[in-house]
């Protein structure tokens, strides 16, 4: 297994059945980017391109994919970013990180499809009015007789 430290990219209409290592295949028609895992394990990594999953930025000669690719559910447990065609490696994902990422992905997907609505933020409470000088004096005077 040889780690990749960079990826080229190709725009295609359909992702081919057989894909080469070191190439990110991008289908704008199907909003998908696919590549072989950069650790060298050979696993095919499919990244849906939408607001809930991954975004692709084309810099001309290179591309970036965000957020990171975290393969904690696979034996290789690889975790890396693709930035301007460069592969930036991070520590392998733990089981806890994988669970958090999966829950976050599920929530984002359900938000994106409208299955659930975003939480409504509580409006800021209105600032309390300070009592007038007369009300303060009256309350102070009343405190002597209670």
Number of helices: 2
Q: How many structural domains in the coordinates? A: 1
| Order of SSEs | EEEEEEEEHH
Number of beta strands: 8
Class based on secondary structure composition and strand pairing: alpha+beta
Helix content: 10-25%
Largest sheet: 4 strands, mixed
* Spatial gap, N to C terminus: 84 Å
Model regions low in confidence, pLDDT < 50 over at least 5 residues:
none
Specify Rg, calculated over alpha carbons: 26 Å
**Multimerization status:** single chain
- Overall average pLDDT: 87
Report the principal-axis shape: elongated
Strand-residue proportion: 25-35%
| Main sheet strand line-up | 1-2-3-4
Tag the structure with descriptive keywords.
8 strands, alpha+beta, elongated, four-stranded mixed β-sheet, 21% helix, 146 residues
Question: Your description of this structure?
Answer:
It is elongated, with a radius of gyration of 26 Å. The chain has one domain (8-113). β2 (23-27) and β3 (32-36) form a beta hairpin. Helix content is 21%, strand content 27%. The mean pLDDT is 87. It is of the alpha+beta class. The protein has helices spanning 95-113, 133-143, and strands at 8-11, 23-27, 32-36, 44-48, 55-58, 63-70, 79-83, 86-89. The strands form 2 sheets. Strands 1-2-3-4 form a 4-stranded mixed β-sheet, with no helix packed on it.
């Amino acid at each position: 297994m040889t780690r990749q430290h960079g990826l080229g990219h190709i725009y295609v209409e359909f992702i081919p059945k057989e894909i080469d290592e070191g190439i990110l295949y991008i289908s704008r028609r199907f909003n998908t980017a696919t590549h072989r895992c950069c650790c060298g394990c050979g696993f095919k990594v499919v990244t849906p391109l939408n607001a809930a999953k991954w975004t692709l930025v084309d810099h001309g000669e290179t591309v970036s994919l965000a957020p990171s690719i975290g393969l904690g559910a696979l034996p290789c447990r690889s975790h890396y970013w693709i930035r301007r065609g460069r592969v930036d490696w991070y520590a392998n994902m733990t089981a806890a990180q994988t669970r958090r990422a999966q829950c976050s992905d599920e929530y984002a997907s359900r938000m994106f499809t409208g299955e659930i609505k975003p939480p409504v933020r509580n409006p800021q409470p209105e600032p309390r009015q300070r009592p007038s000088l007369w009300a303060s004096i009256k309350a102070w005077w009343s405190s002597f007789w209670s």
